[in-house]
Design brief:
about 250 residues; alpha/beta; Spore Coat Polysaccharide Biosynthesis Protein SpsA, Chain A; eight-stranded mixed sheet; two-stranded antiparallel ribbon; 7 helices; globular; binds cytidine-5'-triphosphate; binds magnesium ion
């Protein structure tokens, strides 16, 4: 089939190589259990739930590649979904770049999804893919923010008073989530040209913005929250319990 004749192919890169320092001591965050199943398995299943997703590339901690392979071998995915496991880097940006390098050339759309957002509903995944198929080069799911946000001059020592610099109009702010969706060539270009400084980019769409390419926001979902601190584990297990209860009716 010629390139023009076949439908676009979608791959997902899942950065899962972080330690989860803010979650406290224990296993790497992606391997911590939610209702007995590792967070990463929930995240991979959430992506594989979309019929458009052909390939999932998991970026594992460098010392955990074999363990993650075994984990995915043990937890069945739909037959249409292939998966690969590669070793990650010191920053999220580096991990995403390494995952992106493992995506075969015949995939036109690439999603990037945090392993730490295990509960994103399939409708959100499909909406992001659809917006890229409709011609956007970069798509970000996001929600309006609940809190008013202040920009400050960070204090020299933690806990000290901080000078407020600005208060952006809340109605114009959005809190961004994943999966973020991209035209593959655009994301590859961003990762090849946007420099990795300090902790690197925490957001792939921000790198595409630096290229000068347009980024659009689509509605996110409250269940796509990121598991960051211990209380988020309690919330995630509550969401799973609510889903189980609803499935019973
Ligand atoms: N990540 C990664 N490689 C890194 C750092 C982060 O693949 N070197 C991944 C994490 O595994 C996570 C996602 O990027 O799925 C979002 O990062 P974050 O929530 O900050 O996770 P951690 O970096 O693990 O957590 P913390 O910052 O608390 O240590
Ligand atoms: Mg981090």
């Amino acid at each position: 089939m010629s390139d023009e004749a076949r439908p676009p192919r979608t791959a997902v890169v899942i950065p899962a190589a972080g330690r989860g320092v803010r979650l406290g001591p224990g296993a790497p965050k992606a391997l911590r259990a939610l209702n007995g199943t590792p967070m990463l398995v929930h995240a991979v299943r959430a992506m594989a739930a979309s019929r458009a997703v052909r390939l999932v590339v998991v970026v594992a901690p460098a010392d955990g590649v074999a363990e993650v392979k075994h984990l995915l071998d043990d937890h069945a995915l739909p037959e249409r979904t292939d998966y690969l496991v590669v070793a990650g880097g010191d920053t999220r940006q580096e991990s995403v770049r390494l995952g992106l390098e493992a995506v075969p050339d015949d995939h036109d759309i690439v999603l990037v999804h945090d392993a730490a957002r295990p509960l994103v509903p399939v409708d959100t995944v499909d909406a992001v893919i659809e917006a890229v198929r409709d011609g956007a080069v970069a798509v970000v799911p996001a929600l309006p923010v609940a809190d008013t946000v202040k920009e400050v001059e960070p204090a020299a020592e933690p806990g000290g008073p901080e000078q407020v610099v600005a208060t952006p109009v809340r109605a114009r702010l959005r809190a961004v989530q994943t999966p973020q969706g991209f035209d593959r060539a655009t994301l590859v270009d961003a990762h090849a040209t946007v420099a990795l400084a300090g902790e690197g980019a925490t957001d792939d769409a921000g790198m595409v913005e630096k290229l000068g390419a347009p980024v659009v926001v689509v509605p996110g979902h409250e269940e796509a929250f990121k598991v960051t601190r211990p209380l988020d584990l309690v919330l995630a297990e509550a969401v799973l319990a609510r889903r189980r209860a609803n499935d019973g009716f």
